[in-house]
Amino acid sequence: MTQKLVVVGAGMASGRMLEHLFEADPGAFDVTLFGAEPRGNYNRIMLSPVLAGEKTYEEIVTHDADWYAANNVDCRFGETVTRIDRKAKLIVSGDRETPYDKLVVATGSAPFIIPVAGRDLPGVMAFRDLDDVNAMVAVAGKPNARAVVIGGGLLGLEAAAALRSRGMEVVVLHLMGHLMERQLDPAAGYLLQKELEGRGIKIHCKAQTKAVLGDSHAEAVLLEDGTIYPADIVVMAVGIRPETRIAVDAGLYVERGIVVNDQMVSSDPDILAIGECVEHENICYGLVAPLYDMAKVAARTLVKQDAAFRPVETATQLKVTGVNLYSAGDFADGDDREEIVLRDASAGIYKRLVLKENRILGAVLYGETADGSWFFDMLKKGIDVAEMRDTLIFGQAYQGGGQLDPMAAVAALPDDAEICGCNGVCKGKIVGTITEKGLTTLDAVRAHTKASNSCGTCTGLVEQLMRLTLGDTYNPAAVQPMCGCTELGHDDVRRLIKAKGLKTIPAVMQELEWKTSCGCAKCRPALNYYLVADWPDEYADDYQSRFVNERVHANIQKDGTYSVVPRMWGGVTSSKELRAIADVVDKFNIPTVKVTGGQRIDMLGIQKEDLPAVWADLGKAGFVSGHAYAKGLRTVKTCVGSDWCRFGTQDSTGLGIRIEKFMWGSWTPAKVKMAVSGCPRNCAEATCKDVGVICVDSGFEIHFAGAAGLDIKGTEVLGLVRSEDEALEHIVALVQMYREQGRYLERIYKWAKRVGIEEVRRQIMEDADKRKAYFDRFVFSQKFAQVDPWSERVSGKDKHEFKPMAELGFPQAAE
Amino acid sequence: MSDWIEIGKLDDIPQRGARCVNTPIGRIAVFRTATDDVYAIEDRCPHRGGPLSQGIVHGAEVTCPLHNWVFSLETGLAQGADEGAVRTFALKRDGSRIFMDATMMLAIAAE
């Protein structure tokens, strides 16, 4: 007698299984097929092109009514299965009962809807089936319609790109730091983000959704940080979970998915399960290739042939027209692993292979994916690539050939890219002049174009342009690279960040062709500073690229404890402040209290866990961070000046406090220490500081570029100004010039020597426009910098820094 | 035999960052890389005892905050010209949950 086969779920896995089954033994079963949707099987992974309007529903149907009729399938589409009765071996759907001999559960997955307020409002939808697509298309047709897509994974981005191509304004909210973090490393995620942004899609990473707002319909999405994005529809594409409800109710063994063996049989020998609803060896699958493998195995099991499902490596491709992206295997870093990275900034190409013992473990390709399947093939086969290692990354077609061009980044710059910021000279001008005048030396180029003639920061770039134009006949002086991750020196990197408008660390590493995927402890803090300094309003400070002192806003000591120095403006304090410090010292048993050379009080030996509580108490007394740990403004030391001193000529204390209140919180290439002395007797020791002021009867003599550390050096005189206001403007402009030109960790005296004392004087003392522009840029950046880091952390920012993740005892059971 | 103890969730640790776990044998640093791999090593640099959990994380390596020694998170070996090693502890992940193998801890305590 023909056996009865019931299939619950009419999706891609079961469709494929039925094909195999009818092929193997067309008469073996009478088949009844239940589907939740009121239609038969279609190619679900092609929903994105349907949403984008590139395909129609009809084009993606895989099994039509004729096919089901020809194979004698009893179709129950749109009929909901309510229960499996395993004892009686029948399926209950409403009032109807359908008996089975063998049952296949292929219920697929359900979209995960994040549990926020407003999630049930009309207009909030998933991106899972044709009904979702139709609902989105209906809204997209309205003028100025806006969509917020929650989830920057494969599905969310496909939806976003499709909706954008239909003319909607689209915002993608993504919880993680970069897009598609499960498939892509940060560098490829950056490229993808840039591409999508270029299409007019707004991407917001690290976005934590708080609520969907609206009365009767979704109107906007609110984030935890207070950002609000208006929306006509909200698409939730944060993930899927196996749809296992009827299996759980039936008492089958279910973990995350319905647990099956290699034959796709569940804990009940007459019930099989396939597709996204199953779990095999602790893995749930969501990509189509393994699901098709399951379908094949299940069909063979049903007709009693041998077959076994084995976990498979899967590769991913994003189906967004015009975006080439491929990832496969395991691309995590590891010590026994090596990586080969190819970055071609001009062509927008990024390729990364992860190798272990000369075998490919993982591959991420962006921009050019033609070799994806070749790499994937070698990955699956575990082919030893030692022989072709040197040329492997260039792909299958590559047969020997030239070396990578170290000057590609400069060559790729457009002609109007500004090379010399001081004199406003662009690349086209420099290259044109070299050719026209037959210039062969740097000095000649400087004389004719003025490029690299002022601060000299762009010298490396100018030399690279000369090399590009003149070929090997020009040999520039060697530039010291920033670190092992790049051939570029600090100055080149700084110029290119500005010229190319690079605003994130992954952007810098990609566009400037970094040789490592994640940088190192040398380049990351430097890049972070350059980006903070150059894009104060746009750059999001990367705390993980800061040295621990700047991350926890205290100074690490040799035993791992910290020291805390509150700010005492101009070195002036009061009984209230001193009492508060004394109380904190007693309360937290702080072992050492020390007066510093910068006229502050240092509390040493504080446990990291105590820092927030220490700051909370200091904050109540009005203290803010003294930034004693920062590559930034540390202290302005003063003498008592005309207030008390019989020799004082000006209010040096007042000026020092004013400077400090104006400049605190600013980040600089290296620490900046200042002092203001009220007369030439110089009790505040202003003439060995980074910036110093000596007050005289006729005004204020501004000094800079002193040193009293590794090197000892008296200051240089910048010039004499009449009023306090002028003194402040000149000092601020000088520090801003240093902020824009200094190399990371280069103190002012070293920067000034490199740039030339005369040049600094010329720009700050003689060029009023330049001085004003520097001053204004400093003032602008301070808008984002003058936030007390201590009070931020007392209110809960970076809580994780100060608490252990777990406290473990010995396990009881292990005895 | 392994004895897995849950120590927290992946999201408890910032990417390219670390957290500490206090144990009877001392502090253990748990790292999360840019690619979401997790590693655990003893939170004490063999050079001068620096807390490695406070260092900058790059790739599968960390740089000690005190004197810039670099350690592999995977093998615990000092990189470059420096010689030394820290103990490593096995971790496993189940979804977002992170577990540490306690047998190593017991073995050290028994030393």
Please, could you describe this protein's structure?
- The complex is a heterodimer of chains A (815) and B (111).
- Chain A is α/β, with parallel strands linked by helices and 815 residues long.
- Chain A has six domains: 3-109 and 242-302, FAD/NAD(P)-binding domain (3-Layer(bba) Sandwich); 113-238, FAD/NAD(P)-binding domain, CATH 3.50.50; 324-392, 2-Layer Sandwich (Enolase-like, domain 1), CATH 3.30.390.30; 408-542, BFD-like [2Fe-2S]-binding domain (Arc Repressor Mutant, subunit A, Orthogonal Bundle); 549-630, Sulfite Reductase Hemoprotein, domain 2; 633-789, 2-Layer Sandwich (Sulfite Reductase Hemoprotein, domain 1).
- In chain A, the strands form eleven sheets. Chain A has a five-stranded parallel β-sheet, with no helix packed on it. Chain A has a five-stranded parallel β-sheet with strand order 9-16-10-11-12. A five-stranded antiparallel β-sheet of chain A has the order 21-22-25-24-23.
- Chain A is elongated, with a radius of gyration of 34 Å.
- The model of chain A is unreliable at 399-404 (pLDDT under 50).
- In chain B, the strands form three sheets. Chain B has a four-stranded antiparallel β-sheet, with no helix packed on it.
- The model of chain B has no long low-confidence stretch (mean pLDDT 91).
- Chain B has one domain: Rieske [2Fe-2S] iron-sulphur domain (Rieske Iron-sulfur Protein).
- Strand 39 of chain A pairs parallel with strand 2 (17-23) of chain B, so a sheet runs across the interface.
Instruction: Please provide the ordered H/E string of secondary-structure elements of chain B.
Output: EEEEEEEEEEH
Structural class of chain A: alpha/beta
Total helical elements of chain A:
28
Beta-strand portion of chain B reads 35-45%
Give the % helix of chain A: 25-40%
Instruction: Assign the CATH class of chain B.
Output: Mainly Beta
Number of structurally distinct domains of chain B: 1
What is the CATH architecture assignment of the largest domain in chain A?
Answer: 3-Layer(bba) Sandwich
Low-confidence stretches of chain B: none
